[in-house]
């Protein structure tokens, strides 16, 4: 199709990246200074400053349990779905797994030191379900798991860092998959409710920010529509899996996740909130969809893509039902909420967590024929980063994820309008570098692209806040390079470099930049006076 010229545009963007890299390689320090001053002259000289955000604004970093902890069989931990999935040949790009990852289970104090050096006031991390409940509700609480997270929570609080806890970030006890098919069964709601309550009971005296789920829209699409995440279920033409049904199962799974969220919020409100005084929300992967052309059809296509991606989870929580676009296309394949479910959903949430990385163009495939994008659900849209040979942003290490700083303002303003300006936290935002085993820290530490990425996204986030968006925090993804799911160790998102052979951590330029910003330095795009004098 005529829109299929994305690879060429990608190539062009890669070419200019190569030039940048060549310039940097020329003479590391002089090269970097050159790039810094080039950046200075080509960009609008915005002076981003900590004081443009409320003093109580949470500025943090994020991590997730399976991606960093390792110690996968230690201290009575049960196997998780990711432990099993990553051990099956062909599932992970480089054949790696999270058995050791960053060895954070043993090195968490060192990593908390890195956070202290950054000067963050909050830390977003997740709890490994199978470390706390190795057999779900069919076994006991593992005290060693509780002890580990108590040590983490107490260590960060002692350093003035607020815990922002994700109850579930992709990893679930394998036991629940084996017993009843995990998210495909209503049984999982009881298990999730039990797990959430164990967490509130054990940690809620100190944890004031909870999110029930990280990116349920990724769990459903990647695990049950494309099949690239556990349990690797899908059907043709979405993917080539042994089991699954891509136009049915993602919606059953989503339904059980939404009602598990509602159950946890209900438990928290009824039994813990008064005593513990915290807030509870959910985190959604929130890509922005921009109409490819200024036509009614493409404008509706972009809305439909948002519906099948994000309103899917948030509309039921706010309005008690799925968006009309999903009803129209899915018909009886979309589960329905009973009156009891709707009653439970009235607990809603206290805040929306937004993981924002990228934006894409959306083209209508209902009224004109085009290649429907299977990774965007059954929305009947084609998505592309390319408009008339022009990329929507600059490429990053993750294919299809262009850096599009204005996208964060669009998403935040959209959430503000649709969900009554409910408090929002940017729970993830970050930049990836492609890596392989023959590259070293030196190849990655001068990450000017990541500095510019964070600077530009914060600038547009601040613009949304000035327009009245109720955004209360921002978490850079991520503290340290980690096990990046199906990409294994081939993508690096860290403010700190990790050598996975030695477990050495090295702060990148971006860590120094973020720390200067948080300490209140005036910082223009990648060129704080502090940075140029230091480099
Ligand atoms: C689909 O998977 C089957 C079984 O693993 C394999 O034999 C077949 O070649 C695959 N087809 C495609 C199109 O990848
Ligand atoms: C998926 O489920 C729907 C509804 O039951 C059914 O019509 C369709 O044939 C199924 N598709 C596959 C690939 O099994
Ligand atoms: C889209 O088209 C409408 C009507 O044709 C026009 O008023 C509007 O300015 C256009 N928007 C953009 C972004 O081009
Ligand atoms: C790793 O990446 C570098 C830089 O892109 C490349 O030159 C090298 O050939 C790659 N090595 C392997 C083992 O893939």
Topology:
Elements: H1 6-26, H2 28-42, E1 58-62, H3 65-68, H4 81-86, H5 104-118, E2 122-126, H6 129-132, H7 143-158, E3 162-168, H8 174-180, H9 187-203, E4 209-214, H10 216-226, H11 249-276, E5 279-285, E6 288-291, H12 296-319, H13 324-330, H14 339-345, E7 351-355, E8 359-364, E9 381-384, E10 386-387, E11 390-391, H15 406-418, E12 424-428, E13 433-434, H16 448-466, E14 471-477, E15 491-492, E16 496-499, E17 504-507, H17 509-518, H18 529-534
Parallel strand pairs: 1-2, 1-14, 2-3, 3-4, 4-5, 5-7, 6-8, 7-12, 12-14
Antiparallel strand pairs: 8-9, 10-11, 13-15, 16-17
Helix pairs in contact: 1-2, 5-7, 9-11, 10-11, 15-16, 16-17
The structure holds 2-acetamido-2-deoxy-beta-D-glucopyranose (4 copies).
Explain what you see.
This protein is α/β, with parallel strands linked by helices. It contains 18 helices and 17 strands. It has a single domain (50-519), classed as TIM Barrel (Alpha-Beta Barrel), CATH 3.20.20. The chain has helices at residues 6-26, 28-42, 65-68, 81-86, 104-118, 129-132, 143-158, 174-180, 187-203, 216-226, 249-276, 296-319, 324-330, 339-345, 406-418, 448-466, 509-518, 529-534; strands spanning 58-62, 122-126, 162-168, 209-214, 279-285, 288-291, 351-355, 359-364, 381-384, 386-387, 390-391, 424-428, 433-434, 471-477, 491-492, 496-499, 504-507. The model is unreliable at 1-16, 22-45 and 527-535 (pLDDT under 50). The site of one 2-acetamido-2-deoxy-beta-D-glucopyranose has 5 residues, from loops. One of its GO terms (molecular function) is beta-D-fucosidase activity. This is Beta-glucosidase. InterPro entries: GH, GH_1_N_CS, Glyco_hydro_1.
